[in-house]
Design brief:
about 200 residues; alpha/beta; seven-stranded mixed beta sheet
Length: about 200
């Protein structure tokens, strides 16, 4: 995945991005301070790694996904389309009473349960990412979190991320370069945050 274009894109992001001290949104400040920048080791990480193939370790985005789901106190998590097996282990290990639903077929959309967290890997679903987004955005509530993985993987995923964040219902987006967070919080002024991670 490493290329000069990717490295340059990461450099530009880091140059533009801020840390928690440059934030003026209490909601995003708390998210960054207590969740995104919580780099402490947790027992659950080792428990999840025991279930992985020999020698595999969780990376920073896997650990962050766990923290985001735990922070949301999620009971219903939807995984849209294709995903890596490690992500399912991370999601399963994020809460004790968690309902995980894989959304792959048209009949899966008939579920009337509102998701608390939605996970989408833009790299593994490049052509269908926008379709998934357009179907799920009406179901997002004030506290629903959409996590979009690999938002800078290639020009298509970057464009997709840009379209998602410009949607009229989206009020807050957090670009961490490796993944992005989308919120639809009524009453909040629309802002796009670039955070160092």
């Amino acid at each position: 995945m490493f290329s000069l274009k990717f490295a340059f894109s990461h450099f530009l992001h880091q140059h533009k991005a801020i840390n928690r001290h440059g934030l003026h949104s209490p909601f995003v400040y708390r998210l960054v301070d207590e969740v995104i920048y919580d780099f402490s080791e947790k027992k659950v990480y080792a428990d999840i790694e025991k279930k992985l193939s020999t020698g595999k370790k969780l990376d920073g985005t896997d650990k962050l996904l766990h923290r985001l789901i735990a922070d949301a106190k999620a009971q219903n998590v939807w995984v849209l389309g294709k995903y890596q097996a490690v992500k399912q282990l991370v999601i399963d290990g994020s809460a004790t009473a968690l309902s995980l639903k894989n959304i792959n077929k048209p009949e899966d959309w008939k579920d009337s349960t509102a998701p608390d967290v939605i996970y989408l890997d833009a790299k593994l679903n490049p052509q269908s990412a926008m379709d998934y987004f357009n179907k799920v955005i009406p179901r997002m509530q004030a506290d629903t979190l959409l996590v979009v993985d690999n938002i800078h993987h290639n020009p298509l995923t970057k464009t997709t991320w840009g379209i998602m964040t410009s949607h009229v219902k989206v009020t807050a987006s957090v670009n961490l370069f490796w993944l992005g967070l989308v919120y639809c919080r009524p009453g909040q002024v629309k802002e796009d945050f670039f955070i160092k991670f």
